Amino acid sequence: MNTQSILLIEDDQLLREMYMECLASDTFSVTPARDGEEALQKLPERHWDLVLLDMMLPKINGYEILKRMQTEPDLKKYRKLVLMTNVEPDNEFNEAVKMADGYITKSEYDPDQFIKRITSFLAGA
After folding, report:
1. Which of 46, 75, 47, 56 lies closest to 9, judged by CA?
2. What is the residue-averaged pLDDT of the chain?
């Protein structure tokens, strides 16, 4: 079985560690990024099977990263993009969702549900 690569862009240390622990397996190889600058450094490093992008990030926010991922050729090396948020959807967020494969409202998922949701995104469901 091939390992699927996930770039996890999350600034909250507790959530980042929880997601990494949830995803730790022979199936997933997870690389964390703590902020927008680190994410932009790591995005072009490889072809990511999935990018989990928190929208509220320090230094460079998720909206700006998403725009760059759409326009800069070096940042298009991903297969699926899922936005993560706890904010109420607004016009900017709704526009961002159109550029992604889906989104997760972080507060609505326990760890088991999170894994199922990630697995379904990777499977193309």
Report:
1. 56
2. 87
Model pTM score: 0.89
Q: What percent of the chain has pLDDT over 70?
A: 93
Distances (CA, A) of 88 to 36, 55, 70, 83, 92: 21, 12, 23, 13, 11
SS (H, E, C) the chain: CCCEEEEEECCCHHHHHHHHHHHCCCCEEEEEECCHHHHHHHHHHCCEEEEEEECCCCCCCHHHHHHHHHHCHHHCCEEEEEEEECCCCCHHHHHHHHCCCEEEEHHHCCHHHHHHHHHHHHHCC
- Nearby residues of 29 by Cβ (< 8 Å), 6 or more positions away: 3, 4, 5, 6
Separation CA 49–CA 62 (nearest Å):
18
Residues, the chain, total? Answer: 125
For residue 9, give both structure tokens.
Answer: 């862009």
pLDDT tens for each residue of 79-109: 688 888 876 667 777 788 888 888 888 888 8
